[in-house]
């Protein structure tokens, strides 16, 4: 295992030197030159250490790196020299118990130390010809792929997507795309299907190191399947979500005016904490931890922001065409939110709490039309742009590209997919 770790390090760098397709990103000339020097140096070291013996140790509970080196048989002078160089690039106190550390010896003399500092990076300290140690943190070559996750919701959408290798970023983006017509606390149930297609970079151990653009999201609930494609229309500054016909996912008002990614039906209150779902209760309650951001469901003007009887801290926003939305039991208001403030759709207006008549942290959300509460489920007024002309033509090309990627991914054999195994590091860095 120790030898494999050391060898893997060398081979990975060789692959990089031969232009093995890793991290295909444009680099500045100076960086390229520096890289070449580093690789040459590292290659020399690789040659040298392959002749040496490599042994793997694991950090003991409460053990320091100095303690580990001593335990492995390094002299006090070697330990001090190695640590002195390492502390320039890494704080050894960040090593966790159980973490593997590879040590290299030649004739009982310590010649090298290597360990993974974080997913996608390794710290090495090598003995120089002068007898000192030189340490550096090296980025491991990353592999890029278009990842596709298609799965059935198990306990919650969030935990299932995480387990399948998505990060908070992708799950949050899916929740954003569907926030206009899905009630994430009641509409999404175990057994529902979802799909995510996104760019992923992973290291040689299969850890997701970071993710790139999210290309496609799909959710199939009892209401039926819905697919959205990411597309940046000419003149726009950021991509937006469109269905297969080029119609925007955006609607006049959101159905889930809160980050829905972490909401789960299991966690939610099916009944109002005080009143139950009586005929009088026309609002929607979202159980969520105190401090969860609450979003303006649509563009409008704040007409009220302050304590309001049993509603506790309360915000009411006036939108176009006689519509209003109300948000109750907030722990606090977002900065600058007061009567008269203009708000954008999706802007944070306050945070979940349990003020007023409430037994636990939740958002009470109401949609009103001409002063009467209405069920947000009846609100399907599209608001976003529908692509036309040249934009629609460009969208068609992008949609076909994404669908092709999905088909290619979906047609892979289970063995090929297993090769793309995902063990979660702290992804989405
Ligand atoms: Zn309520």
What features would you describe in this structure?
The structure is a single chain. The protein has helices at residues 2-17, 29-50, 65-71, 76-86, 157-163, 168-178, 389-411, 414-419, and strands at 53-58, 100-106, 109-118, 121-127, 133-139, 143-152, 193-202, 208-221, 224-231, 240-242, 284-287, 293-295, 300-307, 313-318, 323-330, 332-333, 342-343, 348-351, 362-369, 372-374. It has 429 residues and is an alpha+beta fold. The protein folds into 3 domains: 2-139, Roll (Nuclear Transport Factor 2, Chain: A); 142-250 and 384-429, Nuclear Transport Factor 2, Chain: A, CATH 3.10.450; 253-383, Glucose Permease (Domain IIA). A hairpin with a 4-residue loop joins strand 14 (313-318) and strand 15. Helix 1 runs antiparallel to helix 2 (29-50) and helix 3 packs antiparallel against helix 4. It binds zinc ion. Zinc ion (ZN) binds at residues 272, 281, 283, 285, 364. Zinc ion (ZN) is lined by residues 272, 281, 283, 285, 364. InterPro entries: Cell_wall_metabolism_enzyme (IPR050570), Csd3_N2 (IPR045834), Dup_hybrid_motif (IPR011055), M23ase_b-sheet_dom (IPR016047). It is an enzyme of class 3 (hydrolase). Keywords: Hydrolase, Metal-binding, Metalloprotease, Protease, Zinc. Its cofactor is Zn(2+).
- CATH domain class name of the largest domain: Alpha Beta
Q: Remind me, CATH topology of the largest domain?
A: Nuclear Transport Factor 2, Chain: A
**Which range best describes the helical content: under 10%, 10-25%, 25-40%, 40-55%, 55-70% or over 70%?**
10-25%
How would the global form be characterised?
A: elongated
Straight-line N-to-C gap: 28 Å
CATH architecture of the largest domain: Roll
Task: State mean pLDDT (0 to 100 scale).
Answer: 81
Number of helices: 8
Oligomeric state as shown:
single chain
The poorly predicted ranges are 1-28, 266-270, 272-280, 421-429
SS content category: alpha+beta
Cofactor: Zn(2+)
Protein name: Glycyl-glycine endopeptidase ALE-1
GO biological process, one term: proteolysis
Main location: other
